Amino acid sequence: MVEAEVSAMVKAQSLALQNMRVVMRAAQRHSAQIEKQCGVSGAQLWVMQELLEHPGLRMGELAATMSIHQTTASNLVDALVKKNYVRKARDQPDQRVVTLTLTAQGQAVIAGAPQPARGLLPSALGQLDADSLAQLNRGLSALLAVVAPDDRKAGLQPFPFTM
Fold first, then answer.
1. CA 21/CA 134 separation, integer angstroms
2. 148 touches 16 (CB < 8 A)
3. For the residues 4-32, what does the mean pLDDT come to?
């Protein structure tokens, strides 16, 4: 590579690193604001938002909606049940089926919560067009191939700062 190409590459790497830091710090700040204001984690607030919009969800449906493992969803829900923000109920015809709903206390918490309740990153991704998402996924896939080629399961866990 010639010197100009090396310089351009170094600048591009620096900009990418700075941009990732900005995104992660913004998400961390949003999550900290949720925790401080609501007393629940960012991931727990996202659960509550889903149940507000879709009362009666099943655990598997909730996990799929949030792109997380079912065990992780169950742990988030159990913490909210202990706070009396979510209620689990057995479906009458099939007692194996558990449905989830927000309690009145849960509804009050989410009513005063910072927005977006689903979290900054899921909300931002929802605002991107298809081409931008495809470009982002290509770039992230290339980065993952170098950083964590064998750790795709990590994608089914919320960020630690949202837990």
1. 21
2. no
3. 89
